[in-house]
Amino acid sequence: MSLNSPIFLKRSEENNSKFVETKQSQSTSIASEDPLQNLCLASQEVLQKAQQSGRSKCLKCGGSRMFYCYTCYVPVENVPIEQIPLVKLPLKIDIIKHPNETDGKSTAIHAKLLAPEFVNIYTYPCIPEYEEKDHEVALVFPGPQSISIKDISFHLQKRIQNNVRGKNDDPDKPSFKRKRTEEQQFCDLNDSKCKGTPLKKIIFIDSTWNQTNKIFTDERLQGLLQVELKTRKTCFWRHQKGKPDTFLSTIEAIYYFLEAQKPAEEACFSDDTTAETI
């Protein structure tokens, strides 16, 4: 058969097409397996210099630390704070830390260092009051009642509508007035105007997995919308023994949650003056 025959050329084109599709599929697979592919990394030079000079003093408490003080949540003396990038986050983060969690091993502090204006850390039993704001707050924790990230907006909108119904459920008000008030304040959950996520704050629990139950079952966290990161696996070097690889460190859970929340076209949350390093 001639190498220039139409049959040979057709088969050659088909093989080339399949080869290109395979390569594209492999590239897509590799990209999807890389959880940090969109991460914007700042220069590590300041940390490299600090590592060479060794431990340094915390300017607040005077403790000897490497890189940062895990008690005061600030960089140490040989790490100039102006050289640490500040991250601008799309919502507030509360971290409830177990009292027995070792400060020096807690990854929650990394978030506080990089986004001090957006992250607050509370040591249990200290927990803020969320009861009046349960329509704009969610708790990241796995369980039978947890929902996926993509369903947050829908469930928070339902809570808003239920709250409005409760306020308008006045037996002394004529029924037609109650109905009109509801129509004014409610919106169709399928309406595009209602699809903006009203989420303003997200809560994370910082502790070993064996200690989480004490915090999770606290009555002040009951009734909050519960969210689970179901498709992520830990990359943390200090993985907890005996636990599945879907059990994330606190900083991983924060990063993956925010990564899932941001618009697909954005490379990172930061603007020109910030850099995302978590």
How many β strands by DSSP? Answer: 9
Distance between the termini: 60 Å
Radius of gyration: 25 Å
- Biggest sheet layout: 5 strands, parallel
Describe the strand arrangement of the main beta sheet, using strand numbers: 6-5-8-7-9
Shape: globular
Helical coverage, percent range: 25-40%
Q: Please trace the helix and strand order, writing H or E for each element.
A: HHEEEEEHEEHHEHEH
Q: Helix count?
A: 7
Structural class: alpha/beta
Indicate the low-confidence ranges by residue numbers: 17-32, 176-190, 264-278
Into which percentage range does the β-strand content fall? Answer: 5-15%
Task: Write up what this structure looks like.
The structure is a single chain. With about 280 residues, the protein is an alpha/beta fold. The protein contains seven helices and nine strands; from the N terminus they run ααβββββαββααβαβα. The strands form three sheets. The chain has a five-stranded parallel beta sheet with strand order 6-5-8-7-9. Strands 1-2 form a two-stranded antiparallel ribbon. The chain has a two-stranded antiparallel ribbon with strand order 3-4. Helix 4 packs antiparallel against helix 5. The longest helix is centred in the first third of the chain and has 28 residues. The chain is globular and about 60 Å long. The C terminus is likely disordered. This is tRNA-uridine aminocarboxypropyltransferase 1. Catalyzes the formation of 3-(3-amino-3-carboxypropyl)uridine (acp3U) at position 20 in the D-loop of several cytoplasmic tRNAs (acp3U(20)). One of its GO terms (cellular component) is nucleus. Its EC number is 2.5.1.25.
